[in-house]
Amino acid sequence: MERAEIMKRVIGILTESQEVRRSHEAGGEAGPPSEPGVVTLLLSEMMPHFSVPADATPLQVGRIVGETLAPAMHTIVGSFAAAFSALAAVHDSGRTDVSSMDVLRELALRVEAGAYDHGLGHDLPDEGLDEGGSDA
Fold first, then answer.
1. pTM of the predicted model as reported, rounded to 2 decimal places
2. pLDDT tens string 39-58
């Protein structure tokens, strides 16, 4: 899966968690739903699939798992870090006219425009957000 696709899924996870938080604060459901939610589905989509030969030694299994999962985990963690940095930059700037959902929307638009095709952590949406965002 490409970095931009993973970033889109990370934004989806963060957006879903915001919606769950808002629902809980409004007196909605207190816990996670009994069936797999968007977060579980998005995470399972981001993780690569692999197989291990039946006769593999424990060392070979560990190597296969590590070599398969390490790049995906690196990209997933990098995507969460980039999203956190975008949210933190707006928060730390003291802007009260921009909500976290506004930042996530702007980040999603930049990903769609190709800002993260070649890497993460640059061109974060800490500027250029429209005035008058909704509540965080």
1. 0.73
2. 788 788 888 999 999 999 99
